[in-house]
Every structure is written in C-alpha cells, then in structure tokens.
C-alpha cells in the first residue's frame, strides 16, 4: 500500500504543512498540490463542491506527492466511507463534541473488527495498492475537529478515543462558540487558553494536534507550541489577497499619474 507521508513525517517528529482547497475545481486542486504542501485538504464542508467534483480533485492531487485529505460535511458514515473509497488518505471531521461522536467517526473509517466501515474501495485500491483493505486501518488518518466550548471541555476524553490519530482546531467556530468573532488572532487571551488546553490533551494522549491559521507568523507560532499539522489560509484567501494587492497597487499608480488608462 502507498505510504501515508504524514505518518512518516510525524514519526520523525516533523510538522506537516497542509494546503486547503475550497474552490470546486480539479485544476485548482492540482495547482495547489504542485506547490509542495505535505498534504492538501479538500474542504467538502464549507467549500463549494459535492462528491463528484471532490473525486476529480482527489485525482488531481494524486498527480503529486501530497497526501490527499478531505474535510467532510458532517460526522455521517455515508460520506465518510464514500470519501475514503474515493481515495482520501485522511478525514477531518467537523464539530466533534464528545467521545461518543469521536468513536462513531473513527468507527466509520476503520474496517472490522475495529470499526464498521463497509467494503468497497473502488478508487482507493487503485490509488493505494492491492493490499489496501489489509493496511487501510493503519494508514488512513482520522482527525476530529475541536471547535466548540463543549469540545474543549471534553478534549481529554475525545483525545483518548481508540484509533483517533489527531485533533484539528477550527479557530473561527471556536471563537464564535466562546462569544467572539471569526478571524481573531490565535494568540489573543480568550482563544490562547482553550487552544493550549486542547493541545495539552492531545500531547497527553499521544496523538497529533493540527490547527488552521491565518498567516505564516501564526503558523510558525503554532509549530513552536507543538502543533504537527498546520494550515495557512486557503486557496480562496490566496486569490483574494493577491488580487487585492495588485488592484490596490495599480489604482495607486493610476491616481499618481504613473500609468495609462489602467
């Protein structure tokens, strides 16, 4: 079976850099994956794609060495199994608030006897190799999103879930749950404390901690704290910020009379 390079990185004590794709297009996914990310996550929760488009995006990511991950829309066994059958090498599952929810999530991603995943890895067996079923339980990653006040309170129990490989903090939903707003810097007091608590729980239980960040500076700070999967923004954010910077510069030049009609 094809190795999961994230597991290899983590075994060496290294941090994985994760790209994030929300634009529903296989070409965008391929371009993102070609940039050297250790993994690329297809956002099927808030991204604008359904399963059929996500399948093509998984195929596009597979033209590179990046590990293909999917954030599913919800903790629902059907879509969890379907994305794995399509070749996702790891699942990020949103809104996991209790150990029972984490157990249901992990169970859907593991074949019996440790889980209840149904057999049918149509593309996964082609992408991963003929021994996929025998090795999938030890290769596919399960990452539970911690993004509510309830989940923070239950973080230790969630992190103790058998078969759970890691947690992934969603700062925007966590901030809203705590009475804040999206986009607040992760170092701000009311976010820093719960983030540190969840990270400590993951370390105690020996699983990986991941987090979504808004800048390279934030990402580096999270790496220094001990996070081992770090995402910096997303494809859409890169497009917006680059386009805004170009438009702003050109309009400033136009206002200064240094260019022609544009």
What are the defining features of this structure?
TIM Barrel, 262 residues, 8-stranded parallel barrel, alpha/beta, 13 helices
Which SSEs are present, and which pair or pack?
Elements: H1 5-11, E1 16-21, H2 26-33, E2 39-43, H3 51-61, E3 67-71, H4 77-85, E4 90-93, H5 99-108, H6 124-128, H7 132-139, E5 141-146, H8 149-153, H9 155-159, E6 166-169, H10 171-177, H11 189-205, E7 208-213, H12 216-225, E8 229-232, H13 235-255
Parallel strand pairs: 1-2, 1-8, 2-3, 3-4, 4-5, 5-6, 6-7, 7-8
Helix pairs in contact: 2-3
Structure, described:
The protein is α/β, with parallel strands linked by helices. It has one domain: Alpha-Beta Barrel (TIM Barrel), CATH 3.20.20.60. The chain is 47% helix and 15% strand. An eight-stranded parallel β-barrel has the order 1-2-3-4-5-6-7-8, surrounded by eight helices. The longest helix is centred in the last third of the chain and has 21 residues, at 235-255. The protein is globular, with a radius of gyration of 19 Å. The N and C termini lie far apart (54 Å). The mean pLDDT is 96.
Tell me the fraction of residues in β-strands, as a range. Answer: 15-25%
Q: Write the CATH architecture name.
A: Alpha-Beta Barrel
N-to-C series of helices and strands: HEHEHEHEHHHEHHEHHEHEH
The oligomeric status of these chains comes to single chain
What is the typical, i.e. mean, pLDDT?
96
Q: Tell me the number of strands.
A: 8
Strand order of the largest sheet: 1-2-3-4-5-6-7-8
Describe the main β-sheet briefly: 8 strands, parallel, barrel
Q: Using only CA atoms, what is the Rg? A: 19 Å
Provide the helix percentage: 40-55%
The shape is globular
SS-based structural class? Answer: alpha/beta
How far from one another are the termini?
Answer: 54 Å
- Could you name the CATH class? Alpha Beta
Provide a count of the helices. 13
CATH topology, by name, is: TIM Barrel
Query: Which regions are unreliable across 5 or more consecutive residues at pLDDT < 50?
Result: none
CATH superfamily: Phosphoenolpyruvate-binding domains
Number of domains: 1
């Amino acid at each position: 079976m094809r190795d999961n390079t994230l597991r290899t990185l983590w075994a060496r004590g290294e941090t994985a850099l994760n790209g994030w794709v929300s634009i529903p297009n296989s070409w965008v996914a391929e371009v993102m994956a070609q940039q050297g990310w250790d993994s690329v996550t297809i956002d099927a929760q808030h991204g604008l794609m359904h399963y059929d488009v996500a399948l093509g995006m998984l195929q596009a990511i597979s033209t590179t060495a990046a590990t293909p991950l999917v954030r599913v829309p919800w903790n629902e066994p059907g879509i969890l199994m379907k994305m794995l059958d399509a070749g996702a090498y790891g699942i990020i599952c949103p809104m996991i608030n209790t150990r029972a929810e984490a157990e249901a999530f992990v169970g859907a991603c593991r074949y019996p006897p440790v889980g209840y995943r149904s057999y049918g890895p149509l593309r996964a067996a082609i992408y991963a190799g003929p021994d996929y079923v025998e090795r999938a339980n030890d290769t596919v990653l399960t990452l539970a999103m911690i993004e509510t006040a309830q989940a923070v309170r239950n973080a230790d129990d969630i992190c103790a879930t058998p078969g759970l490989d890691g947690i992934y903090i969603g700062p925007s939903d966590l901030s809203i749950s705590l009475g804040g707003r999206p986009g607040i810097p992760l170092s701000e007091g009311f976010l820093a404390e719960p983030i540190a608590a969840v990270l400590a729980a993951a370390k105690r239980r020996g699983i990986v901690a991941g987090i979504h960040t808004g800048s390279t500076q934030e990402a580096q700070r999270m790496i220094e704290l001990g996070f081992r999967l770090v995402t910096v923004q997303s494809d859409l954010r890169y497009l917006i910020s680059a386009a805004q910077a170009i438009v702003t510069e050109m309009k400033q030049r136009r206002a200064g009379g240094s260019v022609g009609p544009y």
